[in-house]
Design a protein that fits this description.
Number of helices: 7
Distance between the termini: 66 Å
CATH topology: Cyclin A, domain 1
Helix content: 55-70%
Structural class: mainly alpha
CATH architecture: Orthogonal Bundle
Shape: elongated
Strand content: under 5%
CATH superfamily: Cyclin-like
Largest sheet: none
Pfam families: Cyclin_C_2 (PF16899)
CATH class: Mainly Alpha
Protein name: Cyclin C-terminal domain-containing protein
Organism: Heterodera trifolii
Number of strands: 0
Order of helices and strands: HHHHHHH
Keywords: Cyclin, Membrane, Transmembrane, Transmembrane helix
InterPro entries: Cyclin-like_sf, Cyclin/Ssn8, Cyclin_C_2
């Protein structure tokens, strides 16, 4: 990929790595092989940069790969869905409600606890 003469290859390379790292925060890494996640990450990074439609070299490079593009599109959808959730998630309001639902451990009676220690 870096050796190809893709426009802005270095920026695309960095963005694709970010997408790969973000994919580890979803089920994608558990459901699909790494090479498919990497290809989807390259495509997502290119789409997010807005250069995918203009970059014929990238399209040609991707077209030469022997992969199941239906699976690649599934991975892309999962990644875009994850980013959509991240964009709409409001930590201040939603996280507070989630933390309140976590059960708290019972307070241990100090005298009973001290008896068991001795």
């Amino acid at each position: 990929m870096k050796n190809a003469s893709v426009q802005n290859a270095e920026h695309l390379y960095q963005d694709a790595w970010r997408v790969c790292n973000d994919s580890l925060k979803s089920d994608v890494a558990l459901l699909y092989p790494p090479h498919m996640v990497a290809i989807a990450a390259i495509m997502v990074a290119a789409l997010m940069r807005g250069g995918y439609e203009k970059d014929k070299e990238l399209k040609n490079w991707l077209a030469e790969l022997n992969v199941d593009y239906e699976k690649i599109l599934e991975i892309q959808q999962m990644l875009f869905s994850m980013y959509s959730v991240w964009r709409t998630f409001d930590e201040q309001t939603q996280l507070k409600g989630l933390l309140e639902k976590i059960p708290r451990p019972n307070q241990i009676n100090q005298t009973a606890h001290n008896v068991h220690i001795q």
